[in-house]
């Protein structure tokens, strides 16, 4: 479980997050929506300490962020996938997936390879294991990036606009992988502009604006019957 209490984050004098309270239960899929610049990425980045909160507390699986020693422990529990895939270009697909588990979890090459191959099967790319990233399509690269994050055996996954950088015809294959993970019971937070997908996969949708969670609820309630003016206005622009 991830518990976020009173999370605040400022960049200089700009207070981006003014007090975010959010609990993500095991197996829960939370989708975060909101205008550009509202702090969606910052929330995700605070969860695995890519940004240091200026206030509040985040507890991941019982590990409090206010204890600096726990940063690495938390990062092992939380996998993150970004808009850009950031695969290492000089390594094969398999090597990209094996690297972190061997380095930080100290598992053997053989075990790392077995895990990597089975994850590639899961994302439908087993036959690409010896390929280099630049020979893959954007959608394939993003699926490798997901497999790479899963290789650390995280308890939670964070997705920050995982399909925003993709050509339209590749969006579905990536969303389908994420959907399968959700079905397997992986707890996750997803920032996305794919509202159809959000409806399919989310247990809960959060609308973030002005530094706060303005509205949250089941996808059908938030999308079809938004209560807050700001949510209505945002949805009217994108739906
Ligand atoms: P979103 O993901 O909702 O589009 P972000 O979380 O990326 O929004 O950014 C929220 C605000 O914080 C924006 O105004 C952005 O310019 C600012 N911001 C984000 N990261 C930094 C940073 N490292 N330094 C300064 N300002 C930042
Ligand atoms: Mg963002």
UniProtKB/TrEMBL annotation:
InterPro entries in the cross-refs: AAA+_ATPase, ABC_ATPase_HisP-typ, ABC_transporter-like_ATP-bd, ABC_transporter-like_CS, MetN_ABC_transporter-like, P-loop_NTPase
Recorded hits in Pfam families, A to Z, give: ABC_tran
Under the GO molecular function aspect, what terms does this record hold? ATP binding
User: Which CDD domains would you find in this protein's record?
Assistant: ABC_HisP_GlnQ
Domain annotation ABC transporter: ranges: 2-235
Record-linked SMART domains: AAA (SM00382)
Keywords annotated in UniProt:
ATP-binding, Nucleotide-binding, Transport
Q: Which domain of life is it from?
A: Bacteria
Q: Which family does it belong to?
A: Belongs to the ABC transporter superfamily.
- The name on file for this protein is Amino acid ABC transporter ATP-binding protein
* Organism for this UniProt entry: Megasphaera hominis
Q: What is the lineage of its organism?
A: Bacteria, Bacillati, Bacillota, Negativicutes, Veillonellales
């Amino acid at each position: 479980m991830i518990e976020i209490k009173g999370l605040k984050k400022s960049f200089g004098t700009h207070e981006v997050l003014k007090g975010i309270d959010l609990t993500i239960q095991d197996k829960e899929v939370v989708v975060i929506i909101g205008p550009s610049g509202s702090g969606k990425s910052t929330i995700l980045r605070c969860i695995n300490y890519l940004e240091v909160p200026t206030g509040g507390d985040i507890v991941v699986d019982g590990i409090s962020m206010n204890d600096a020693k726990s940063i690495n422990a938390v990062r092992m529990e939380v996998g993150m996938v970004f808009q850009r895939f950031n695969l290492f270009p000089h390594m094969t697909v398999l090597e990209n997936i094996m690297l972190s588990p061997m380095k930080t979890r100290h598992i053997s090459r053989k075990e790392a390879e077995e895990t990597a191959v089975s994850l590639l099967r899961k994302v439908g790319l087993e036959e690409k294991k010896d390929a280099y990233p630049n020979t893959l399509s954007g959608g394939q690269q993003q699926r490798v990036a997901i497999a790479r994050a899963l290789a650390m055996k995280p308890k939670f996954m964070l997705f920050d606009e995982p399909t925003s950088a993709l050509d339209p015809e590749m969006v579905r294959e990536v969303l389908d992988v994420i959907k399968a993970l959700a079905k397997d019971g992986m707890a996750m937070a997803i920032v996305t502009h794919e509202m159809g997908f959000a409806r399919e996969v989310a247990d809960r949708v959060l609308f973030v604006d002005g530094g706060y969670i303005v509205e949250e609820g089941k996808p059908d309630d938030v999308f079809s019957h938004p209560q807050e003016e700001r949510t209505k206005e945002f949805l009217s622009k994108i739906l």
